[in-house]
Amino acid sequence: MNADSFHKMVTAEGFSEPVLVEREANGFMDMHTHPFEAKALILDGYIEIGSGSDSRRYESGDVFHLLHEQTHWERYGPKGVLYLAARKAPCR
Length: 92
Known about the structure:
By secondary structure, this protein is mostly beta strands.
């Protein structure tokens, strides 16, 4: 997927305007949650996202989707990772 397609998709799905996020090389974020739903398009590098021993690696062109309050950890590749991220507030 490219940035234009991603932007159209998240806009149609009610997400916020995508913002550019850059994470450091070989970085790691331990188990955590977010108070929002998130979708992101990887532009460069890679991110591995998991919970427990299950994980998936997302590379350039891939989209990841995290649900509101979904517990997960994140690991960034040797170049770090650059991605477009959009958020959606939980339904009340």
